[in-house]
């Protein structure tokens, strides 16, 4: 099969080179081939030619009212919208006058035909349990839990924190919030107590939905204990904690505050009317890292978000009724929101959810799952693909992956070598790959191939999605030339764009809309090749992308200086073969503190405790002083070079006199 597809593409010899391609760490390969959509795929795809893509894209930019007005009719509205877009930069209102409910769109509207008994969620726990929830069953569970929320006085507009393992109840809790118009904020289960506390205080949530624990790589993640630690002290707005029993270990139950999920269900029935929400009502807040200060609460609203989630699931994943679709992202990230829950369910598709690690109990867990459930569309991250490559092809060979028809990636640039491996080994050479560029802020795919129409090249996310007007510009906002690197901007509002940063209008305006007037600045660097394909280089602000997880250097720095021995800290990324970027911390200690390997380990542990395992530093290096410009700005460029081993090598925890190097390198930097 692989030979057949390869013959249709235009093979040029793959040239090995040490060039940096796809913006990833050290890519060993530059792949020049172009992969045309296979004829069988294109034949059935909703968008099946470049001409069709181009015509629709042009219409979406020239006549957004017509284009999106038509697409939005595919949603279920309790009251039709009057106007498609009301745009006064930076505030967009989509589908004004319209009312709809997200859970009704994701559930109720599928109950009138054969989808009623179709699997909405297929779930597998890490220890191996299996559950299937049909649309009918999921609807029932969502209604019941929505009634539990109501029982605890949760009202329209109230914030609800969800801190859950990857179990169906996470999706049930999200959908239940949307049913009654509450605003959920899901916190990734890998975040620490401190991170929960920050988010609780910022969002002003009065209720947390959690579980006793969750399984990850054979161990139990103590979710409830983290919540208890987060709520210590008197300054919390949280009145209720609902605990789902997942792992069964003993947990503390605070009388008058904590209740068990299963007990609560005994008090409620399964009827709960969906509240008709204004199209612009807040739907969820999702915290993500920025280049300064604490994580920011990205706010998404109802109609535009749901439309974009549904539309991209339809055109990019080309989901259809007989697909078994698996997005491996955690529900705590935006990918889990849009492409595990809302997009596929809005479309009436079957979405698979797996609780645990890809290498538990062995390295073939994902392939086992694909084979067992005959997964057809698979969406994962380049970091995972690189790990699979490292573990070796034999793990795949044990399994029949022939059910797959489409593959996707997200979260970071994919190096061509990983792309080719994914294409050949996982996709058997026959599956198109959609490399999707987007962000928490964008709500859904922005730059991506449409699998039946757009020829792909390994390492590029290719072309903009409908309604997305991309610019790659210099500091003055002028378009750069072909293959020149510039700043990635979006020149027009799109339906699922963020509506703000929770509680911080000024930061919203400054972060996204100030660099270039009237345009959204994404924080990424990119270049466009001669065919107009967009190659994402990566973040150009002080945000790292570690294994597809976004991490602000300022957050790690603030965690470090909260340790009693630390005077000052600067954190930078360095290229990492597996994770894309690794976290390197330069630390100066307080007078009289002795530096040692033990202290370095202690500081790594400290960061892990303050933020969570995703932020664990790869290296802590002690420095006599940090290199600064005359105006006192830390010279990150220099530290990045040092971290990458370009300037100094050697024992990483010995005291470095960076000042000496700084003096040499300082000329011109201020
Ligand atoms: O740098 C880009 C990178 O991930 C960032 C967004 O991170 P986050 O908000 O956590 O959302 C991740 C999942 C949507 C972007 O600014 N990124 C995301 N997808 C890609 C990517 N970089 C290159 N190629 C991609 N396909």
Can you tell me about this structure?
The protein is α/β, with parallel strands linked by helices. Among the domains are: 95-357, Rossmann fold (3-Layer(aba) Sandwich), CATH 3.40.50; 543-666, ANL, C-terminal domain (GMP Synthetase, Chain A, domain 3), CATH 3.30.300. 30% of the residues lie in helices and 23% in strands. The chain contains 21 helices and 32 strands. The strands form ten sheets. Strands 7-6-19-18-20-21-22 form a seven-stranded mixed β-sheet, with helices on both faces. α8 packs across α9 (223-230) and α14 (382-391) packs across α16. The radius of gyration is 24 Å and the shape is globular. The model is unreliable at 1-28 and 666-670 (pLDDT under 50). It binds adenosine-5'-monophosphate-propyl ester (PRX).
Q: Average the pLDDT over all residues and give the rounded result.
A: 92
Radius of gyration over all CA atoms, rounded: 24 Å
Helix content: 25-40%
Judging from the principal axes of the Cα atoms, what is the shape? globular
Separation of termini?
Answer: 57 Å
Structure ligands: adenosine-5'-monophosphate-propyl ester
Q: What share of residues are in beta strands?
A: 15-25%
Based on the model shown, name its key terms:
single chain, 670 residues, alpha/beta, Rossmann fold, GMP Synthetase, Chain A, domain 3, 7-stranded mixed sheet, 5-stranded parallel sheet, 21 helices, 30% helix, 23% strand, globular, disordered C terminus, binds adenosine-5'-monophosphate-propyl ester
